[in-house]
Design brief:
The protein is mostly beta strands. The protein has no helices and 48 strands. A hairpin with a 4-residue loop joins strand 3 and strand 4.
């Protein structure tokens, strides 16, 4: 959006007079930290555990954060202690049913936005699946909110709680709350598959003492039936040993401390020939300069450093030394992947690295870890990183309702039960986006014409008549009355979305399901808030469904 915004975080429990640990910054540059309490629609207080707090008018607030300890005394005890985890074990399959060729990694967190790119450079862009497994350790006892955002299907399991569905649900976002005991590990698993088009998989959480964000690797432990041997917080690379030469099927996992084998010793009960090994992890550069990587082996070998293929000779069968170079930055960590194919016998392998300021050293030691870091996603200018933010029903004023549309006609658009509001007048609807729209076709949504955008990118101009029983009816000037099934339609365009919110609006209100409203006022009640959105209408929102309030600064 073209205007600047400051952010006021608003949790549902705040409006019920609960005390929260947080920080408030005011327009005069002052900052206040303590227990924060919303007292009415225009004021909040910040104070100590005991005694009166400072009364601050909402109009004077630049930003405020609300963290939700179950026990307010936790605020006096300091920040929660971090765990000692490394991340989760990720199994990347080249088929959408968790079968086929698999690539194992230790991922530090689940915060992946691949868009139309491959999740791993030698997996397909579409029709793949990933299963992350391990355990989660909450840093402190209390209530935690988990947010699952995925495109396409995904199912998150935390302890005995589940979230999401393993079906084609392009661009969905779901939340759930649960109680967790500090220091106690619970099973944690995310299953994800991509059907077609852009792909993403993200798990965020927020809880006592911290705001929403990706789960830190320190709170995740790759403990599962497939957990690798020798795993601990120490140097090494994760080795995936396959009983074939093609890195295919199930694998035996272990952490190898040093890339110097004389010869390579596969796991017990492995054949002494016709097997393959893939090592993955991270390497920290000690200097900013060009580094030389060498691998001496009598077997086939490939090496990637930071996504660059520096050695490529999988067909090798005689002892040779292969060399490649790559520029590294001091202190930066680079994903490393080393592959070896053993055709006959237990071959030797030694991998080293060196630079102008570093003598030749074996890959190993304190600068090498068996974990992978998701690359930082890159988005085009002006585009949201979260694809789910492009989905839903958009009013002409820019508000967005994330609930699923059940039916619509020329009078109203109706939503599934539990959506706020339950319906909206069709005259106020500018756009309904059912599936993520590839970047090359998004401009068609902004053109000054009405109609439907089909799955193949074709735009059929015409007047919308109704949506019922998963069928769209459009009256086209060229084709007459046409019907399209939901599997054919990405978006329905009824008008234009304004570039800026209506001038009378003061806030952006975000709900737990990701819906966003531009509102000019709200009124607090015992268990709900009355919202006035000029392009959506007036409706009640339960306090438990509130997530965030952003103050619009013009």
């Amino acid at each position: 959006m073209a205007f600047t915004r400051t952010t006021l975080w608003l949790a549902a429990f705040v409006l019920t007079a609960a005390a929260e640990a947080g920080t408030v910054t005011t327009k005069d540059g002052q900052g206040y930290t303590g227990l924060v309490q919303f007292v009415d629609a225009e004021h909040l207080t910040v104070g100590p555990l005991k005694g009166p707090g400072k009364l601050i008018a909402l109009k004077d607030v630049v930003s405020a954060t609300f963290d939700a300890p179950v026990d307010p005394k936790m605020f006096a005890k300091g920040a929660p202690m971090a765990g000692k985890g490394l991340g989760l074990l990720g199994a990347y399959h080249d088929r959408p049913n968790f079968k086929g060729r698999v690539i194992y990694r230790l991922d530090k967190t689940i915060d992946h936005q691949w868009y139309a790119n491959k999740p791993v450079f030698d997996l397909p862009r579409d029709y793949f699946s990933i299963r992350w497994t391990g355990e989660l350790e909450a840093p402190v006892t209390g209530e935690y909110t988990f947010t699952l955002m995925a495109n396409d299907g995904a199912q998150l399991t935390v302890g005995t709680n589940t979230l999401g569905k393993l079906e084609t649900m392009a661009g969905f976002r779901q939340k759930t709350k649960m109680q967790l005991q500090g220091g106690k590990r619970v099973p944690f698993q995310l299953e994800f598959f991509d059907n077609y088009g852009e792909a993403s998989a993200r798990v965020l959480w927020k809880g006592p003492g911290f705001q929403e964000g990706p789960i830190a690797a320190t709170q995740l432990y790759p403990v599962s039936p497939k957990a690798p041997e020798g795993l601990k917080d120490g140097p090494g690379l994760l080795g995936s040993y396959f009983q074939n030469r093609f890195f295919y099927g199930d694998a035996v996992l272990r952490v190898d401390r040093s890339m110097d084998f004389k010869p390579v010793q596969p796991p017990k009960a492995f054949p002494d020939k016709n097997y393959s090994v893939r090592w993955t992890g991270q390497l920290e550069a000690p200097h900013t300069e060009e580094f030389t990587f060498q691998v001496t082996t009598d077997e086939g070998v490939r090496l990637w450093v930071g996504g660059k293929l520096v050695i490529n000779s999988l067909s090798n069968r005689t002892e040779r030394t292969f060399t490649g170079t790559v520029d590294l930055q001091r202190g930066a960590r680079y994903n490393v992947r080393l592959e070896s194919v053993h055709r006959a016998g237990q071959g030797n392998l030694k991998a080293t690295w060196s630079s102008r300021n570093q003598p030749v050293a074996v890959l190993g030691g304190p600068r090498m870890r068996p974990v992978f870091e998701p690359p930082v996603p890159e988005a085009s200018a002006g585009e949201e990183l979260n694809e789910s933010q492009t989905l839903g029903v958009f009013s002409w004023g820019g508000s967005r309702i994330a609930g699923r549309v059940t039916s619509a006609d020329d009078t109203s658009v109706r939503f599934e039960a539990g959506t706020m509001p339950g319906r909206i007048s069709t005259v106020n609807v500018a756009r309904i986006v059912f599936k993520p729209v590839p970047r090359q076709w998004r401009e068609k949504l902004r053109q000054k014409r009405k109609g439907v955008l089909l799955q193949n990118g074709e735009f059929i101009e015409g007047d919308f008549q109704q949506f019922k029983d998963d069928w769209f009816t459009i009256h086209s000037l060229l084709f007459g009355v046409k019907q399209y099934g939901t599997e054919q339609v990405m978006a329905l365009v009824l008008g234009e979305v304004a570039a800026k919110p209506v001038k009378s609006t003061l806030y952006e209100l975000v709900l737990e399901d990701g819906s966003l409203f531009h509102v000019r006022s709200f009124k607090l009640a015992q268990t709900s808030v009355r919202v006035d959105d000029p392009t959506v209408g007036k409706f009640n929102v339960p306090l438990t469904d509130l997530d965030e309030l952003r103050v619009i600064s013009r």
